Amino acid sequence: MNTPTDVASILRRNRLLEELDAAQMAELLTLGYVSRFAPNQTIFEKGDSGDCLYAVLKGQIAIRTSSADGKTMLLNILNSGDILGEIGLLDGRERTASALAIGPTELYRIDRADFIPFLERHPRLCTRMMIVLCERLRWVSENIEDAVFHDVPLRLARRLLHLADHYGQTTPSGLRIAQPLSQEALASMLGVTREMVNKSLGTLRKSGIITNAKGFIVINNLPLLKDLAGDTERVP
Prior knowledge:
Strand order of the largest sheet: 1-8-3-6
Order of helices and strands: HHEEEEEEHEEHHHEEHHEEH
Helix content: 40-55%
Shape: globular
Number of strands: 12
Structural class: alpha+beta
Number of helices: 9
Radius of gyration: 19 Å
Largest sheet: 4 strands, antiparallel
Strand content: 15-25%
């Protein structure tokens, strides 16, 4: 069972909420409650009303979008400390994507009717939220640019760098992406076929850039991967 202290420490992992002082965090904790979801249970669907914000306390969330003809794209995987639903919460309009619990999941839910007045009482948090949303917009713009202008190997390299930035663990053999990723999941993230991802991963392995270790991708040559991605700044 989560205590207020446990919830507060998890919420502080998020860039939006990390700067709240003790009194502000205590106030925020009076507004929300824990919601639990079973594996593969839908949290919200694209098009649903943006009536609340969620913070991930435990488990993982898949953020997905789909086209009218049923094609699905995996946009992101969220973990403990991440926040979802903030865009719909702010403007009160429809959700721009769907959210699905990957495994047993606990979320901290704060309804829009309570969170908006909280923002109005704490204008510095409004500024912080604008910064976070601008970062999200830049990330979306980069993904659109990649999809339009770049080939699959470059896009895969950039996605691996993004994942390494979020889940990278230093090991003797290289930077281990501590997030299990199937070829199907990577293909869904890039909006391409599994076969195209398989071919690109094979090229990276033959070049000594990556290896697979017990279901995880290990980046063995980070400078070369960054060079392939055309990005020398993303991962230190």
